[in-house]
Design brief:
Layout lengths: L5 H13 L9 H7 L14 E6 L14 H4 L2 H10 L2 E5 L11 H11 L5 E2 L3 E2 L4 E2 L1 H9 L5 E4 L6 H4 L9 H18 L3 E5 L8 H4 L7 E4 L1 H8 L1 H5 L4 E4 L6 H10 L5 E4 L4 H11 L23 H16 L3 E3 L4 E3 L4 E2 L8 E4 L1 H18 L4 E5 L12 H15 L3 E4 L2 H10 L7 E2 L4 H7 L5 H11 L1
Bound molecules: adenosine-5'-diphosphate and 1,3-bisphosphoglyceric acid.
The site of 1,3-bisphosphoglyceric acid has 11 residues, from loops.
């Protein structure tokens, strides 16, 4: 059994927390080449306990097929383990809060696998961060070929301690994280599979537990997504960035640097930074309204001056490379009215009708220019689409994806809210492929490595 010392854990976590900074030259391809495949575990004998970090953040509906796409993504890997006679222990998070339960998820996994999938509710001693012996006994007593689920990892603080950790915090955190990982290795297993494609946060179950494992592997679904559709997206011609997370500008920069993008559509709240940048470059000042008022600096839609400066560099550099930028020219504000220019108190919550028309025309021009021989990647939503008052931009955009696909364009949709909008306003077959993950896809295509791939590489390199 592997045991990780506190110093080793500290060094491990430092690499995880630093991400790209720790290994600036590594690409997605390097991480994928390093991550062992499920087939590499062919010699693991029947009866072995195998940990599966699962993509269990799902809300199963009444029927199979509803709200369980991430659970279905795990079926091939889990069936493989059942056939091998492994005792598989699925663990992972549901939602952001500690209260979420995996009860429905375990039941739906049972339906998908055609076998009883029990939930082990109480499995970490919160004083010591070690595995409770009752949970270890339950796993030991399970039959070969069984599948169990451990209750929501985020119920325990240890799962979340790296989320906001800085390198200087690691002295205090390393002993606790080492205790957790070592206890899992001692009482559950040292064989670990990651089949949690969307779990891109710094959860201990994704990025720390591999430190104490003897064998690790990337699940079949995740490997297929990274090696298949993701590779197409790495060569996208058109990138659509939308939504509220302004740090997507970092990903835009990284994608542009890869050299294939010829056209960018920016929409939603984050597009305001690009719109202002274009205004400044072209001598036509643009107001961001409430989004540029420092009084709102703690709001998720606040756009700091540094982001406008970054957007200016992106646009100036992009134009030199021949990239065209399409951004909204009007906005829907809080009271539902449409404005070309925002007053200092207006908050932009959707794009207006002129912008909808402009994006549609730009899609037409893209299809004409490429003859449909192109790849398009879409991320995010064009407004607060959950509220009918602010859904028009997103609702009108989704059929444009269908239009592109029908013209021959390969259309990929990053999961997250963009995926939800496709579900709400379109059909699966309107696009070539919709990912089951939002953040992970942007990490893989953008500026930061996918944390769990970093951990699998570190484990494989041990
Ligand atoms: N002005 C806005 N434009 C777009 N989305 C917004 C805006 N204000 C708030 N949002 C919210 O941001 C979320 C989508 O943005 P984001 O989280 O960046 O997308 P994703 O989850 O696809 O990465 C949605 O819930 C949306 O309602
Ligand atoms: O829903 C998820 O990702 P997504 O919103 O990026 O698609 C994953 O469960 C990750 O969730 P997290 O962002 O709470 O770590």
């Amino acid at each position: 059994m592997s045991t990780v010392s506190t110093d080793q854990m500290k060094a491990w976590c430092e690499k995880i927390v630093k991400g790209r900074e720790a290994a600036p030259d590594l690409t997605l391809g390097d991480y994928l080449a390093a991550a062992p495949s499920l087939d590499s575990l062919a010699d693991v004998p029947a009866g072995t306990v195998v940990l599966v970090r699962g993509d269990v953040d799902a809300k199963p509906g009444d029927k199979v097929g509803e709200g369980d796409i991430r659970l279905r993504s795990m079926v091939d890997t889990l069936k493989h383990g059942v056939e091998k006679g492994w005792k598989q222990v699925v663990f992972g998070h549901i939602g952001r809060k500690p209260e979420g339960s995996l009860e429905k998820v375990a039941a739906r996994l049972g339906e998908l696998l055609g076998q009883n999938v029990p939930l082990i509710k109480d499995w970490v001693d919160t004083d010591t961060n070690e595995i409770k012996l009752s949970a270890a006994e339950a796993v030991k007593a399970a039959d070969p070929g069984s599948v169990m689920v451990l209750e929501n990892t985020r119920a325990y603080d240890i799962e979340r301690v790296l989320w906001k950790a800085k390198v200087e915090d690691l002295d205090a955190l390393a002993p606790k994280l080492a205790a957790f990982a070592n206890s899992i290795a001692e009482h559950l297993s040292t064989v670990y599979v990651n089949e949690a494609f969307s779990a891109g946060s710094l959860d201990a179950s994704s990025v720390v537990v591999p430190a104490a494992m003897d064998r690790v592997a990337l699940g079949k679904y995740a490997a297929g997504e990274f090696n298949g559709p993701m590779q197409k997206c790495l060569k996208t011609d058109l990138a659509v960035f939308s939504g509220i997370k302004i740090d997507k500008l970092d990903d835009m920069e990284a994608m542009i640097a890869r050299g294939t993008i010829k056209q960018i559509f920016a929409s939603g709240s984050l597009a305001m930074a690009i719109r202002k940048a274009i205004g400044e470059l072209d001598g036509k000042p643009v107001s961001l309204g409430a989004a540029e008022d420092p009084a709102n600096s703690s709001e998720p839609w606040y756009i700091p001056p540094a982001r406008v400066a970054q957007a200016k560099e992106i646009v100036a550099d992009g134009r030199e490379k021949g990239i065209t930028f399409t951004v909204p020219c009007d906005s829907v504000v809080e009271d539902g009215s449409v404005k070309d220019e925002l007053s200092p108190t207006d908050q932009q919550l959707d794009i207006g009708p002129k912008s909808i028309e402009a994006f549609s025309q730009a899609v037409g021009a893209f299809i004409e220019r490429t003859g449909g021989k192109a790849v398009a990647f879409h991320n995010g939503v064009f407004g607060v689409f959950e509220d009918p008052k602010f859904e028009a931009g997103t609702k009108a955009w989704i059929p444009e994806l269908k239009r592109m696909k029908e013209a021959g364009v390969e259309v990929y949709v990053g999961g997250g809210e963009g995926g939800k909008a496709l579900e709400k306003y379109g059909e699966d077959d309107w696009v070539t492929h919709c990912f089951t993950a939002g953040g992970t896809v942007l990490n893989a295509l953008g500026s930061e490595p996918v944390p769990y791939l970093v951990a699998l590489k570190l484990a494989a390199d041990k």
